[in-house]
Amino acid sequence: EKGGHRHWMAKEIAEQPAVLDQALQHYIRDADLVMPNDAVDFAKVNRVVMVACGTAYYACLVAKYWIERLANLPVEVDVASEFRYREPPIPEGTLAVFVSQSGETADTLAALNYCKGKCPIVAVVNVEGSSIARAADVVLPILAGREIGVASTKAFTCQLAVLAVLALKAARDRGTLTAEQMDAHLDTLTRIPALIAQALNIEDELRDIARDLSEARDILFLGRGAMYPLALEGALKLKEISYIHAEGYASGELKHGPIALVDDSVPVIVFAPTDPLFGKTVSNMQEVMARGGKVVLVSDTQGLSSQRTTWHTAQMPDVAELWAPILYAVPAQLLAYHTAIAKGTDVDQPRNLAKSVTVE
Ligand code: F6R
Question: In the chain, at which end, N or C, are there fewer CB atoms within 10 A of the end residue's CB?
């Protein structure tokens, strides 16, 4: 039933090229965006709020970079448990987006109900008949198929894929991209599943790195721009299943505190594809190495060629800068998975966690 895999999580990681392809084909046909007829018109929206919990919240943080950049539309992101009790103002022109794999998360549902009647509501869910789907005005299924492992993997990348499509739809409605730019983005997005399949091929290297990581007590994850939420997701995944203390930080925040933790016992995992900010991330990495910190650099050929003194490297395929977070989710998942295996923990049923958090 696990398709020859030892764990549901391994199966669900391996399924990603196929399910992502399916999700993208649902929303992109003949090189054009396909959205439900009643999908919201972003030309009438002047602000987006996105609300979720855990991994789904990190997917929203990535989407903020995309929607702001592609559609020139301000986006606020909040965790549902804060949003619901803060009862924030919902001014005219707001669109609210709720993201939930299960569609049953109590805090996310309560946050949605707070917005009901105040603004249009989009739900991005995996379970189509779920409470959150039923309460929304527009439902965008992520089509990941049933996710059984408690640690979310394929749902995260499918959430990102659907949010990428939503960002492109926002750009189209608002006329912020030329036809050529739109075509190029659609083209690079539809190539992501094949790149994910390539990224899965570096599993052996990641397993070796994970064996070393499993001896650490604390691990830091760093990223800039849309890689910052990936750093948060990498840290969450690792702590959930390996029980190693891990924190994700925006690379630029390092010197504002967390660098005090760094010594030769602390691995620092850096997600840094070659992009305009790469040089800045390298200087953050050098600050870590100057204090004995053990850097694991996850980057592409060009990024890795400039760095020789890191502890470990993981070489990723080249990817269009904008969509890199979808691809880099894979090493984040595999590092967590193999670290947990090395520690001998129960990967599919981590202690204290439930797949669906239907109570606060
Ligand atoms: C992490 C994880 C959780 C969920 C969170 C929200 O691996 O699975 O952080 O992402 O509990 O769940 P959903 O998406 O069902 O609302």
Answer: N
Nearest CA to ligand 1 atom 9: 54
Residue-by-residue pLDDT tens, the chain, 360 positions: 898 999 999 999 999 999 999 999 999 998 899 987 778 899 999 999 999 999 999 999 999 999 999 999 999 999 999 999 999 999 999 999 999 999 999 999 999 999 999 999 999 999 999 999 999 999 999 999 999 999 999 999 999 999 999 999 999 999 999 999 999 999 999 999 999 999 999 999 999 999 999 999 999 999 999 999 999 999 999 999 999 999 999 999 999 999 999 999 999 999 999 999 999 999 999 999 999 999 999 999 999 998 778 999 999 999 999 999 999 999 999 999 999 999 999 898 888 888 888 888
Single pTM value for the model: 0.97
Pairing of the two strands 294-299 and 312-315: parallel
Task: Give the Cα separation of 338 and 332 in Å (integer).
Answer: 10
H or E element that contains 92: none
Q: Which atom of ligand 1 is nearest to the CA of 355?
A: 8
3-state secondary structure of 140: strand
Backbone angles phi, psi at 351, to 5 degrees: -60, 145
- CA-CA-CA-CA torsion for 282, 284, 289, 291, nearest 10 degrees? 170
Active site annotation includes 280: no
* Residue nearest (by alpha carbon) to ligand 1 atom 3: 54
The residues, any chain, with a CB within 8 Å of residue 29's CB and separated by 6 or more, are none
Who contacts 181 (Cβ-Cβ below 8 Å, separation ≥6)? Answer: none
125/99 Cα distance (integer angstroms): 6
